[in-house]
Design goal:
heterodimer, A: four-stranded mixed sheet, 17 helices, 18 strands, globular, B: mainly alpha, 14 helices
């Protein structure tokens, strides 16, 4: 206590206060990033860092909607939608001063598609002609892949099909360029353990530059004076803190150590809503919380039972009384409003209909129905939802439900091997387009995990994605979505929201469904 | 004494190898792998990843390779953090954890030792009951409760100290050190009280008093050495426990120490990191136990002659 009194005789200036003049943003970044190599990492904390330090051909629009120019100042698309020509910024530079040219993109895309690199996101480029074949080792000739540097500032990309969301993919970090000489100086093209991402070695092309990286403590990036749009960057520094404990993060925010938090603790969200906390933000987020149904299960393979389960859930009650953080009840797999797409589906809460479906399947009033098991990974929020679902099914259908919680990796392993009946799941879109959701349930997709295979669904998606006409495409996707909801291999529960706290000093930060806040638009002002 | 040390080191080596072997196979028996994620890794990519990390070899070959590298002091690369070796990560976190443990044990010894001696000297008076009641509460209060309470009061309510961090803001080491040290202070208070009570009843103390030495001299010069022996033998396992058990405090205060790597490695199935930290912690525990045994030998003539 004496130490406390000795050290703490005066109130210190908080980082948030001192950051204002120096334009230093303190950012709660969730967890320690796996790394900073855009071709190797996966995950949201890495995304926050990489959009600051590197830049792809396009960047996500901070206000949502169409992507904005990044390294590509403009582009043209052929009438059949299969050939894209990108014109690069002539003043685009790497942070070491080298010019950034079209061939940098060719080499970088070759790198991510190199099988021995073991990148987990090569499929982001699978739309490019010849890319899957190269990545799967069917050819070793990269010239067969549809990406060519026409000259230093012109990049031509040929796609297998018209892919209307292709421009959106190009703001994803997996498509970012990396500096060839730096990568090769510290390893080979397929070296996962290369040291090029360390401070001092790191070279990239974004508005910020890597300054320091202290494991599990903080990563500091500073303004890159060589960035092509440097004059519009107002922040001088961003400090990212890997705070994995939500309560710690909340206390840091309250003590003025953070401008922005990653999340709001589960139990605090309803309290902050009630208190009208001015720093609390709850914004729509492109993610769906759902229950996956194992359609290979002898009972659950019956569509009527899956529908009965879905119709017996009162989603409104779940979001209002259980999750309690502004989530929206979900009646489709794709969140409404994803790139202007509005799914035309409904899932009624109708216990009578549900009961009659169950009776039709041979289980009147739930008699003889086996005990159902809901699998979820250990987390308080998932447990609460599972309890509510358990109660609704017991009450509305008369069936017994057991809850099974498992450690994250055990849960994943059980889902992967189909060792479950119903499992909790969530899906966050990789890019703003309905395809990022609907594609996962096509046959042979690793993320399907339900055992549900529907040829018509597959065809509808294939047709939709070869169409260049957005309206027609959305109508096909809507048909697929309707088919999905009428078969119910997944039971949507709610649409995610992004709940976080942000200081009123932070300006240039807009709500958007993909939760991407590009640092070049952010500044601090009181 | 040298013989004792050499004997202990000779036992330590096979112990560590057994720990490594058991951990190796236990980790592999746990369901789920290092690259499993909600977004499934395509089979082709998984095959490549397994090849990169030698996970496609038969388990026994992997074991043989791992042990071979281990004997040469190579813990391998982290699976979770590409580009980082396990050794690098251990030695990044270790100094922080050691520093935290040092402050915590210092606080524990000063507060606990002082309280224990005062209580023993004033046996069955309020000066005995009050510190011992506080010590009992201290033992019962978990760090995950004490930490946030201290933060709320000193960090958020009084705005006197930072609520998190390590070596970033002035005074950010105070609250975590107190939080981690508190439970140990409580133990030490009880141990030193017990030890002192036993010593104060000895004949040589009566002799010292009979010779007319003032009471404070009797305590400081004669009683303390014997009275604190239980505390010293507790210190070895306590320091090892502090280092291995600092995870909660490191999480509450956002401290980049080794404890967080250790626990997160298990959740991430970062095989090499789990093995590396487990082996390292076993070695530390053995080392600190040895140190405390040596200290006891030095302080206790009876034990010295037995050795």
């Amino acid at each position: 206590m004496a130490l406390v009194l000795f050290f703490g005789c005066t109130k210190a200036v908080s980082p948030v206060d001192s950051g204002l003049e120096a334009q230093i943003l303190h950012f709660g970044n969730g967890s320690e990033p796996q790394g900073l190599d855009p071709h190797i990492v996966t995950g949201v904390p890495e995304h926050h860092l990489l959009i600051a330090m590197c830049e792809g051909l396009t960047i996500a629009n901070p206000k949502g909607g169409e992507n904005l120019p990044g390294v590509a100042k403009s582009w043209t698309i052929s009438p059949d939608g299969k050939t894209y020509t990108f014109f690069l910024q002539e003043n685009a530079r790497w942070s070491n001063g080298d010019s950034l040219t079209a061939s940098d993109f060719v080499w970088s895309w070759m790198r991510i598609l190199t099988p021995s690199l073991g990148s987990q996101y090569p499929d982001m480029l699978y739309y490019v002609k010849g890319a899957p074949e190269y990545h799967q080792g069917l050819t070793e000739d990269f010239s067969s892949v549809g990406v060519t540097a026409v000259n230093d500032y012109e990049l031509k990309v040929e796609l297998t099909n018209a892919t209307p969301f292709f421009i959106k993919l190009l703001s994803h970090y997996s498509t970012y360029p990396v500096h060839k000489e730096t990568v090769l100086q510290h390893g080979t093209i397929d070296d996962r353990n290369g040291q090029w991402t360390r401070p001092g070695n790191f070279v990239c092309n974004g508005p910020m530059n890597l300054k320091t990286w202290e494991l599990n403590k903080q990563i500091t990036v500073e303004k890159n004076p060589l960035y092509w749009d440097e004059e519009n960057v107002r922040l001088n520094e961003i400090r990212y803190y890997p705070v994995s404990n939500e309560s710690t993060e909340d206390r840091m925010f309250r003590a003025g150590q953070l401008h922005v938090t990653n999340v709001v603790p589960l139990e605090k969200c309803p309290v902050y809503i009630e208190q009208n906390n001015p720093d609390l933000r709850i914004e729509p987020y492109m993610g769906t919380y759902f229950y996956r149904v194992n359609t290979n299960h002898p009972v659950l393979k019956d569509k009527r039972i899956r529908l009965a389960l879905a119709y017996a859930l009162n989603r409104k009650l779940i979001v209002e009384k259980v999750s309690k953080c502004g989530q929206e009840a979900a009646y489709s797999f794709t969140p409404p409003g994803t790139a202007g797409y509005e799914p035309d589906t409904s899932i009624p809460f109708d216990p009578e209909l549900a009961k009659s479906l169950l009776a039709e399947a041979g289980y009147a009033d739930g008699s003889n129905f086996p005990v159902l098991e809901i699998l979820f990974n250990t987390q308080e929020g998932h447990r609460k939802i599972a309890l509510a679902v358990q109660q609704m099914w017991q009450q509305n259908l008369g069936i017994s439900v057991q809850l099974v919680n498992q450690d994250w990796k055990v849960y994943l392993a059980r889902e992967m091997t189909g060792d479950y009946q119903i499992s909790r799941a969530g899906w966050i879109g990789d890019y703003e387009d309905p395809n990022t959701f609907l594609d996962t349930l096509r046959p042979n997709r690793g993320n399907n995990k339900t055992g549900w295979e529907n040829q018509k669904y597959d065809e509808l998606l294939a047709t939709a994605n070869s169409t260049n006409d957005q309206e027609l495409r959305y109508s096909y996707l809507n048909q697929a979505e309707k088919l999905l909801i009428s078969e119910m291999p997944i039971i949507p529960i709610y649409t995610y929201v992004k709940a976080y706290q942000i200081s009123s000093d932070v300006k240039g930060w807009y709500p958007n469904i993909i939760d991407t806040h590009h640092p070049k638009f952010i500044y601090l002002e009181r | 004494m040298l013989q004792v040390i050499l004997k202990r080191i000779a036992i330590a080596i096979p112990v560590i190898l057994v720990v490594a072997s058991i951990t190796f196979f236990l980790v592999r028996m746990a369901p789920g792998g290092p690259f499993d994620a909600e977004k499934v890794v395509p089979p082709q990519v998984m095959k490549n990843l397994n090849a990169v990390y030698n996970l496609d070899a038969p388990l026994f070959i992997q074991y043989k390779d791992y042990m071979f590298n281990l004997v040469q002091g190579d813990f391998g690369p982290s699976f979770r953090y590409p580009g980082r070796s396990v050794t690098e990560m251990i030695f990044t976190g270790l100094p922080v954890t050691l520093e935290l443990a040092f402050y915590a044990i210092l606080i524990a010894m000063v507060i606990g030792g002082f309280a224990g001696v005062i209580a023993a000297v004033n046996r069955n008076t309020p000066l005995d009951y009050i510190p011992m009641t506080i010590a009992m509460i201290g033992i019962c209060m978990p760090t995950f409760l004490l930490g946030p309470l201290l933060v709320l009061f000193f960090g958020i309510h009084l705005e006197l100290l930072p609520v998190s961090g390590w070596d970033s803001l002035a005074g950010d080491k105070i609250l975590p050190s107190i939080t981690l040290g508190a439970a140990y202070a409580a133990y030490i208070a009880r141990l030193s009280r017990g030890g002192m009570l036993e010593t104060l009843g000895q004949d040589y103390i009566r002799t010292a008093r009979a010779k007319g030495l003032p009471e404070y001299k009797v305590i400081i010069r004669h009683a303390l050495q014997g009275g604190l022996v239980p505390v010293v033998s507790f210190l070895g396992p306590a320091i090892a426990g502090l280092i291995g058990g600092s995870f909660v405090v490191e999480t509450i205060f956002q401290i980049p120490g080794l404890g967080r790597f250790y626990v997160e490695a298990a959740f991430n199935r970062d095989y090499t990191m789990i093995l590396g930290t487990t082996i390292f912690f076993s070695a530390l525990i053995i080392f600190f136990n040895l140190l405390s045994d040596i200290a006891v030998l030095l302080m206790n003539p009876r034990a010295r002659s037995e050795a």
